[in-house]
Request: fold
Amino acid sequence: MSGRPIDDVLVVGGGIIGLAIAREAARAGVRVRLLEKGTIGREASSAAAGLLGPQLGADRPDPLLPLCLASRDLYAVFARQVADESGIDPALLDRGTLVVAARAGEAEALDRQCAFQRSIGLSAERVRGGELRRLEPSLREDCVEGLYLPRDRSVDNVLLVQGLERAAELSGARLERGVRVDRLLVENGRVVGVQAGSQRVSAGAVVIAAGAWSGEIAGDGLPPVPSVPVRGQIACLGPAAVPGRPLYSGDFYLVPRRDGRVLAGSTMERAGFDRRVTAPAIAALTAAAVALVPALRDAPFHSAWAGLRPATGDDLPAIGRGAAPGLLYACGHLRQGILLAPLTALVILRLLRGEDPGFDLTAFDPGRFQNRVTGAGLSPAPSVGARARRENPS
Ligand SMILES: Cc1cc2nc3c(=O)[nH]c(=O)nc-3n(C[C@H](O)[C@H](O)[C@H](O)COP(=O)(O)OP(=O)(O)OC[C@H]3O[C@@H](n4cnc5c(N)ncnc54)[C@H](O)[C@@H]3O)c2cc1C
Reply:
């Protein structure tokens, strides 16, 4: 792989990351087989809110920021191509995102974010008083400080995943449902495929894109990348006519869908692989929604769900080559997997072709965990640091 282009690849996991890679590689003429243990796209990728907001909370340089910005910039073309190829429009909402200071002290944080973002050439506007109200009349009246990010947007990730599934298959990728990969097959120090139940599946390269379960996949002498699930719950209200764009306040957000539903999210919980919805979390999210946009008090309750974000333990994804030739990782995207899907697919395709990835991937090197991996291959619980506290950065 380093240098030698690969012409057939096996992708483990049919979430947005695995699907985006499968589609990208198949379009480039690579033979692709994707194995999904359950139903395609039913895990974190369908549970997400779909914020594409690399600027949310950004107030300092961060190794992931360039990738997040680049991925956001790929989205218009990515979403249009997926729509054209699949016939499913992922409803990219392009009205910017509004960050609102709802508590004392938050206005200074918005000043810092605005100053930093403008200093690196990004569009960000501090909006106050009447200007804020004109932009988003549905806000609670005493919200008078905001930061408008005209380029941060949102997408309907459920539709996007459905479109990607269809587009990947139409591009020639072979998607197999209900096939759980158990371990990597290693021959002469090279990964040559996987064992899936009684099946041995050979491939020129294997990409681990198994989300929160990526840490379960190892091979002889190849420890897994650590992975820990971080549960996120969402309350869905509506139909409602407000708000007009994604709103972000503290660590809470509202994301309107094209069909009138409004998503209120989200929790960050270490609850193992339990993706049950809990009454206190949904009550708190619903109350926060009404507190930010009072008109939502008249909105019907629609539904609620939870998903397991994939974390590596240090808030950064694992993207790049593994410890043996023939092995790549694209996992641990935590709160940014929807945002980072197009860029991750592009980078993995470049690596498969033996090309320069085009981005500095040092901070995301899957090998960085080697000295932290313990007997079972799992690292300590994930830190939930500054970046991880922001949804998308969901
Ligand atoms: C509540 C919530 C809100 C979020 N909001 C946002 C947001 O606004 N913006 C954003 O960018 N991100 C958001 N995220 C994060 C985003 O959803 C994830 O980062 C992203 O979906 C990860 O995609 P994935 O393909 O890696 O994982 P998943 O979607 O979990 O897919 C992994 C797949 O691998 C399969 N699999 C696992 N093990 C195996 C195996 N051994 N063999 C075969 N298949 C296997 C699983 O069944 C699963 O289908 C949110 C997440 C949650 C939970």
